[in-house]
Amino acid sequence: MTDSVALLLRRAGFGPTATDLANGKRSGYSAVLRDLLAPAGDDAGAVRAPFPVLPVDPYTYFKRPPTAKEAAAADVVREDSIQRITRWWIDRLVVADHQGLEKLTFFWHGHWATSVKKVRDARLLLNQHQVLRKKDFREMARTMVTDAALIHWLDGQLNSRSKPNENLGRELMELFLLGIGNYTEADVKDAGRALTGWKVDYGRARSYFAAKDHDFGSKTILGVTRDFDAQSLTDFLLSQPICPRFIASRMWYRYGSAIDPIPQSVLDRMLTAFPYGPSMLWAMFEDEAFLATSGTMAKQPVEWLVGAMRQLGLRLWDLPKPAQDMVVAGLEALGQLPFAPPSVGGWPNSNAWLTTGATQIRLSLAGVLAEAVGAPQSIEGLAEVLAVETWTSRTFEALKDVPNPRHRLILGLVSPEYMVS
Amino acid sequence: MDAVTRRKFLIASGVLGGGAVGLGAAIGLADLLHRAKAQDPEEPGDNPDKLVVVTLYGGNDGLATVVPHGDDAYQSARPELAYASGQVLDLNGTLGLNPALVGLKKLWDDGQLAIVLGVGYPQPDRSHFHSMDVWQTASPAHPIKSGWVGRWLDAVKGPLETAVSFEPVLPPLLVGAERSGVSVGVSGLQLPAGITSDMLARLGQVVPGEPMIGARAAAGIRDLLDIDRLVREAERAERPSTGTRQEIPATGTGGESALAAQLNLVASCVEAGVRTRVYSVSLGGFDLHAQERAGQEMLLRELDQALTPFVQRLSATQAGRRVTVVVYSEFGRRVRANSAFGTDHGTAGPMFVLGPHVAGGLHGVQPSLTDLDDGDLKMTTDFRDVFGSIIESVLHPDPERFLEGHKLRPIPLIKKA
What we know:
The complex is a heterodimer of chains A (421) and B (417). Chain A is built from 23 helices and four strands. Chain A has 421 residues and is mainly α. Among the domains of chain A are: 136-256 and 260-293, no CATH class; 301-419, no CATH class. The radius of gyration of chain A is 23 Å and the shape is globular. In chain A, 54% of the residues are buried. In chain B, 34% of the residues lie in helices and 12% in strands. Chain B contains twelve helices and twelve strands. Chain B has helices spanning 7-11, 18-26, 29-39, 72-77, 102-109, 128-137, 148-156, 197-203, 212-236, 258-271, 292-314, 383-395; strands at 50-56, 66-67, 89-90, 96-97, 113-120, 163-165, 182-183, 278-283, 323-329, 349-354, 361-363, 381-382. The termini of chain B are far apart.
């Protein structure tokens, strides 16, 4: 079961550190599972990364279109807030003790993928982030459907009775609650109508309902005709039998396998745990089929970076400022910058991270991290720090011929063994 | 969704299952690349036909690209977005190119641009996701896990470098059942201090019994080193003299676009005799639900300023003259504008085919703006007939093999040699 504990710690959290792994092997799979998904008490580690307090978006103060100079000054404030939340989240993932819940929050970010590159106001994203921490998926979905960041991201504020915009309605069905193929184009149009009237109050960083723009007429969705609005539409979609199946399969896709579909045994267990996110994961991790996925996933960029920083005992702030900037730029180049998913479809699947371009970026980032820490002196010590069970003969022989521990650390971080989750 | 590319979204589609890629990498295709380069370089005069596929992600507004300015229904359907007849680059009195496409207009005048009108697929789907899958897999009726270039790779048993993508993530287009193309970053290898390529090369060896992901990661390291050699060779290749080419003055300023960078690398590889037959490049951001007009012009200008010098550069070398370029997007936009001066997801749109051997001019029929399918254009040409006709001229004499049972209605897009 020792390999299983390592697999569980890698998939459910970031890292793990040598200490996490040693403790986990002592306490056993079930205890590790409980600590990951139902931890006792407050997260003492996460306290070290308090939520940023952000200024009001300066654009809300303009009574008329800003001049180029005013806009440039406002953009500086916006960009500063965006950088703060981005770096805060990276740091929080590194210092948090409740790793299973942190990873799950990151999973939901990929699910409700909203990017600050379009929304621009970091406060809206930080508010949405709190919603991603809800354990009850139904509650999360009910809140999310009128979340200001999501509305802006999918043009919901432009969706009105006279000029419907179906973007949010479509993604609600395709990507968030049902999955493609489980509705018709006519359903999309009427779902869009149900969501009309929700707008964003940018000054207060929240959404509000403008009744005059809402379409109060009857809508026919999935064969049911009612005067659906945002809440009743969401409740209706959540009550569809396909919804929990879709959510379970999305979790399996990120935590179990990006190649093989969710096994029936796993699906059955997870459905009984719906709508509670941590319980659904718990159910997945308890199934034999999960253990059989060992070695089939590649670490996502955030898993790779945050895991390495945890293992090396390194916080972002420990790095010199240019190195911090390189880490952020590196994550962006790898296609996984927190708060900036590439599209509403979320992150690419795990096998997309192994391209030559991504290999180059990891190599550069490994160089940056290795500069900032004392490297383990032995090859065995390096394996222990990086929680690599054993080096293959290939990597062991290659490392043996490299005298400098720092160079060995760089090679360890880009080694094929270290990419496997 | 404005300014957001769906490129990476495709990967989540599951079309890019790891299976084909993993298998390909695990049997050492990177080694084949190296061997092909070392032992069997392409000789001058031995230039096979090549294809460059340009994907416009996000759903390009066909009616704002090839503008039906002479049609009253166009002016009334989208008054805020419509171009007046005097603003467009007229093609035939009723259709005209977007004013940003000045370079393509010049290629049109030179007979090097073919425009296929009203291209789409049956029972269109308005999801970016699904629609792009359809275009790349050439299978509208049911989802499959391979792209049409990937299936051609399977058939010709092409080595790794036969199909290359200069995008960060490999598109499903290039993934076959047994083989797949390779994704190549646009910059060369940069090593941290103290690390040598020899050290990396040892990590790139696959160990028997290694997990599939480990083998793929090792292949990624090997490919990085091999591709670096390839790119450095391409950079050393002689650029043709610019004296004989007619340059189009750039109407914009600013740095090289991502698409231009990708196309430059394609041109360098072609001129260096690299044995790649299909290149995939892309430009994203066409999903303009709001404030479309300025954004559309900016993107089309970027497309124009990347494609035009590329096609001109190709025409200067023997190898370059064997290249055909095809441009497509996953769907067009609705005929009517929405309330935000943008357009929502639609159906059929025009495709561009460019190159010295192209039968320039209009092909197919412009869809009616009044006989609509629930507010959308009715397609007049099936995209598989466009891709199939190009496959037949450029890649393989039996294109139907790669079109999942589609019966080809050939379009004379390429002039027979």
